[in-house]
């Protein structure tokens, strides 16, 4: 028995997927009975909803050029996503029938647009200045496509770049290096790249022909650094408070002493070799048979200190001390210690004044006194230690006479 051939089912036009109300069905039917030109003129008053617009689009003839005008008009009336989609679909059918509608075709791509990769800005940190004018500098700079360049340095305003290293790490490694560095050099405060670059560049320029390893290492990164920022013309502390708000006038003895007793200023001690001539003269004054009374001796010692300050702090070094105090004021402000920040600025301001032969600078005088006290205390401690060793009970070892 032969298998009967199945009759091919009559292909009927798929009904519109849009479900309309009876009123909308009637409106759609009325529009479709008219010619495309009439539909176009009646669109605005008859198309009451995006749903009805989609139904009309689905039923437009795909071989009539006038249908494109209806699509353009609907595009102006409705901005809904479903209407835009129905218009694109109808425009595609028109194009297949040989009817081109440029205004309905998708915009052609202009090719691959390469966007500039956004790289986060470098981070910079500085530490406090010690008694020799040296301080730590730390920079983290993101690299493309990944990783970080980490700069660790020690820069001195008198001795140039003392240490410098620039290495590439992953972001995780860079954070570990930062943590390790900050644990050993503290406190470090965040600053601008311009400030950190200025500290390094000023230190580099201290040497006429820097050829040491640290200076050479800095030289390799110098161009990269100076391309990314401009050097500062003034200490950054004035950006925080404004030049006009800086304290002026003389700092008092108690204020200078308070400032020098701060932990961040603990190393602001004169070198013993620098103080040696003064100490020798003070000893002579104390042992002098000519200076009989204590007041005579004290007056002579004060004269010796003033003479020493003139020798220890010529104009060039006074300017250096002024800059150090301004940089320390910045540190104190960043650490939210406004009292010592303003004391530092007051001391810096006093150094800007012309040196007087009648009255020495209070801060410099306290620097000398502070240093003398430091070494005298150290000498006394050593003397006490030696006496303790001599009075320690014998261990039983007999030393030869």
Describe what you observe in this structure:
With 401 residues, this protein is of the alpha+beta class. The protein contains 15 helices and five strands. The chain folds into three domains: 22-104, no CATH class; 123-233, no CATH class; 242-384, no CATH class. The chain has helices at residues 22-32, 36-46, 50-58, 67-77, 81-96, 171-184, 193-204, 213-228, 237-241, 253-260, 272-287, 294-312, 315-334, 338-352, 362-390; strands at residues 123-126, 134-142, 148-156, 160-169, 189-191. The chain has a five-stranded antiparallel sheet with strand order 4-3-2-1-5. α2 runs parallel beside α4 (67-77) and α13 packs antiparallel against α14 (338-352). It is rod-shaped. The termini are far apart.
Topology:
Blueprint: H1 22-32, H2 36-46, H3 50-58, H4 67-77, H5 81-96, E1 123-126, E2 134-142, E3 148-156, E4 160-169, H6 171-184, E5 189-191, H7 193-204, H8 213-228, H9 237-241, H10 253-260, H11 272-287, H12 294-312, H13 315-334, H14 338-352, H15 362-390
Antiparallel strand pairs: 1-2, 1-5, 2-3, 3-4
Helix pairs in contact: 2-4, 3-5, 4-5, 7-8, 10-14, 10-15, 11-12, 13-14
Brief description of this entry?
By secondary structure, the chain is α+β, with helices and mostly antiparallel strands.
What proportion strand?
5-15%
Domains counted in the coordinates: how many?
3
Order of helices and strands: HHHHHEEEEHEHHHHHHHHH
Mean of residue pLDDT?
Answer: 82
Count of discrete alpha- or pi-helical segments spanning 4 or more residues: 15
The outline comes out as rod-shaped
State the secondary-structure class.
Answer: alpha+beta
Q: What is the total tally of β strands?
A: 5
Q: Helical residue percent?
A: 40-55%
Radius of gyration: 43 Å
Low-confidence stretches: 5-15, 389-401
Largest sheet: 5 strands, antiparallel
